[in-house]
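Lecture 7, part 2: worked example. A protein chain together with S-adenosylmethionine.
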Amino acid sequence: MVAYDDQMMKSICEAPGVRTEPRLAKPVCKGIAVMTGFDDSCDRTAAKLAGRLKLPLVTADTAQSFSYLLVVTPKRLELRENRRGMTRPICVDTTVFRRRRSTLNLSRRQPLARAIGPHTNTVVDATAGIGQDAFLLALMGYRVTAIERSAIIAALLQDGVSRAGDSLAGRVDVIFGDTREVLPSMRPAPDTVYLDPMFPPKRKRSALAKKSVRTLRDLVGDDDDAVELLAVCLRHAANRVVVKRPSYADPLKPAPSANHRGKLVRYDVYFVKP
Ligand SMILES: C[S@@+](CC[C@H](N)C(=O)[O-])C[C@H]1O[C@@H](n2cnc3c(N)ncnc32)[C@H](O)[C@@H]1O
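Predicted complex, written out as structure tokens:
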């Protein structure tokens, strides 16, 4: 069990070394509260987190009217849906990557790595979410800066990174802010900028998205401004911009320079002209 020492508390609540660019960052959505109730250390962290995110602080007894709860447990920060029979909480647990390392495809010949580019060292993940792609890229050996504009998702991500405790933590930096605002001032410009905006819904209604994806969409919306984000990325990447798209969707911007296809997704690559 990991107690919340001062450093961890800071990394969740104040995020030292993590730049915050909240001007365009999304306001926290309604219907969320931070829940206390584990031990004194968790309660102190929860109170600070609630203060920073400007969310109500509740106990199990007063939580009923909220749809989602951010719960500071002795092990990690969790986002829970607040209803009976609810599925697994959302959290950022990098130990999964360590446990599954032998089965992960980290080859530089796979579609993602080919899209990121053979001469790439630094990658900005412009739509970090809960960091699945950012951690994969870090494990492949890239130096990753993960930018996330939802305060709640960024808090989960920062919690995961602060607990990673191995080489992963040193390879991923988290910035809470909007990439359209953060990227233009990054020096030097990253070799590659990677984008994975929310997938457009499938036309077939029966194709229900995974629960965690639905929760994420509920919290952060549909990323309707992804085309504008791509335009900013194209102006500020050093070499290329990669956009992850579902195989069924058109490119975010017509005529990518190249694409690399996986089983269910496609990586559209836009070379940046010097
Ligand atoms: C589909 S999720 C990304 C999932 C991520 N690739 C992963 O592996 O976990 C899209 C995320 O991008 C974030 N986002 C969208 N536009 C953004 C922007 N302009 N700046 C920063 N974050 C953004 C959303 O808040 C959302 O969390």
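The CA atoms of residues 22 and 242 lie 25 Å apart. Residues 127, 129-133, 147-150, 153, 178-180, 196-198, 220, 223, 229 surround S-adenosylmethionine (CB under 6 Å). Keep this in mind for problem set question 3.
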